[in-house]
Amino acid sequence: HLFQDLLIGVTQFFRDPQEFDALERELPTLFESKGPHDQFRVWTLGCATGEEAYSIAMLLGEVLDAQGGRLDLRVFATDVDREALDFARAGLYPAAELAELGEARLARWFRPEANDHWRVSKALRDLCVFSVHDLTRHPPLVRMDLLSCRNVLIYFKPAQQAELLRSFHFALNPGGLLLLGKSESVSPDGGGFD
Question: Residue 181 — φ and ψ, nearest 5°?
């Protein structure tokens, strides 16, 4: 119970829309370096109940469709909270949580269920892999094109933040993108990031 109390699972679909707008502007450039049979790999850290991972997966699919491109998209979503990951895997959300998505997005990515709930579509669910990962103990996932670590670093001390940023730099492909929350930044020396 203490472990659950210490975790902060504040999340929502397309949380902080201005950050998703910025990401949407960058995605075409990231996609340019990929061939039609290449995999585009994303790692979302601290994914909680999955809203962030699913939001990024939706945006990837929409931008890729708008470009008329084809890529093997894969979103690796990790957290230390097994209960939250089970919820994310199930992909069942109350309609109230999806109200801001709009009708087109809701129709494309979700299916209605009983009791005013919606379930993530199979196409969206198949893009996402949810697993337990502890940033402080497990090695980073590698060969990532995009790493989303929004509102996670703020819970670590500066020395741990610097170590994690070095780990993130190692995890990203050259030219990859690190997406941080609005309360976070890279260390003064850049941690290898531009």
Answer: -75, 165
Dmax (CA) for the chain in angstroms is: 52
- Our CA dihedral for 9, 116, 125, 58, rounded to 10 degrees, sits at -80
Instruction: Check residues 133 and 156 and name the one with the higher pLDDT.
Output: 133
DSSP string, 60-74: HHHHHHHHT---EEE
pLDDT at 116 over 60: yes
The pair of structure tokens assigned to 91 is: 């992909």
Q: Is 75 helix (H, G, I), strand (E, B) or coil?
A: strand
CB distance 156 to 126 below 8 Å = no
What is the rounded CA–CA span in Å between residue 98 and residue 51? 10
Q: Measure the CA–CA gap between 45 and 152, rounded to whole angstroms.
A: 8
Dihedral sign for Cα 48, 150, 147, 34, please: positive
Per residue in 84-110, pLDDT (tens digit) is: 999 999 999 999 999 889 999 999 999
pTM of the complete model = 0.92
Greater pLDDT, 66 or 43: 43
Q: Give the dihedral sign, CA 169/172/177/178.
A: negative
CA distances from 73 to 46, 106, 164, 181, 188 (A): 20, 20, 25, 23, 33
State how far the Cα of 122 lies from the Cα of 125, in Å rounded to an integer: 5
